[in-house]
## 1
Amino acid sequence: MIFADKKPIIHGLGVLGYALLINFLIFTDSI
């Protein structure tokens, strides 16, 4: 996350995408 300091918006989207990815993995694992 080198660009986190220069691009906080992109960093925020990255965190959101990471959270969605984790939720997706948990959801598919629970099926």
## 2
Amino acid sequence: MNPLRNCVNARASPGSDALYDLNTVTSVQGPLHRRPGAVLNRQGFPHQGRMWAKKLVHETKIRIGTWTIGSLTGKLMELIDNMIHRKLNILCIKETKWVGEKAKEIDSLGFKLRYSDRSRTRNGVCVTIDKSLKDNVIKINMIGDRIIVLKIVVDNKIVNIISAYAPQVGLNMSSK
């Protein structure tokens, strides 16, 4: 039996298999790291036990959605249920088919609906705002029956929301 047959020639290259990396300094007490937080737990895992700082100021998040509804008639509660379910603050709606340019308060839930339409058969835009933002509205500008511009204050910043409806079916090229 040859005793050298079971020996493994292990070699270490300086760049890959070194015991300590190039950023490690050795002293009489052992290896010293440049980042003292890296060896606090004595296992050398730098991320274990790290404390993350929490933000002192929380940003307000608003959720905005859009929906081509087909007709708003008879779908008002479905619209509100979808806003609550999807946690939307503002919902822009197209194809309302409600004639007029009015604002409507939905009594018990605190939502405000503002719509504009000239024809009962097509077009119409609407914006629905929940109770947390309805008092922050600066201006709502309705441009015809296809464009609605909402100017609102969120975290002391003015945000412009533009909702446009561009139907493609049955129109000539100049209208598109």
